[in-house]
């Protein structure tokens, strides 16, 4: 008897899919090789996988423009949202990558900015339609 991993129903061994929900059973004779993990960073020139080193350390300077336009939170998003410069070990090309912190900073920034823009547009439309 085969037990379905999705719904838990017992099925005869002759079935290739669950008679209750239709979920396919893995073939016992199937010896597929598991897929290799997808590379996280690929060089844009030579296509080398995950072979890079940090090339230029960016300055940790404070952005007065971001601070004046959006306050301390905008300056922090500007600082943490920067991309990291790296150099490919295979061909020596310099390119930029996003770190986990810069991806999170970018996502939170847009989650805060989009509702603000929508509210401002609605206010302007309300004033114009009066």
Explain the layout of strands and helices:
Blueprint: E1 2-3, E2 10-11, E3 52-56, H1 64-80, E4 84-88, E5 94-97, H2 100-128
Antiparallel strand pairs: 1-2, 3-4, 4-5
Structure report:
It is a single chain. With 130 residues, the chain is α+β, with helices and mostly antiparallel strands. It has 2 domains: 1-32; 52-128, no CATH class. It is built from 2 helices and 5 strands; from the N terminus they run βββαββα. It has a 3-stranded antiparallel beta sheet with strand order 3-4-5, with no helix packed on it. Strands 1-2 form a two-stranded antiparallel sheet. β1 (2-3) and β2 form a beta hairpin. The protein starts with a strand and ends with a helix.
Number of domains: 2
Question: Strand pairing plus helix content: what structural class?
Answer: alpha+beta
Q: Give the tally of β-strands.
A: 5
Q: Can you give the helix content as a percent range?
A: 25-40%
Strand content: 5-15%
Report how far the terminal alpha carbons are from each other: 72 Å
Mean pLDDT equals 78
Give me the number of helical elements: 2
Extract low-pLDDT stretches.
none
- The backbone outline, from C-alpha atoms, is flat
* Strand order in the largest sheet: 3-4-5
Give helix and strand order, one letter per element, not per position. EEEHEEH
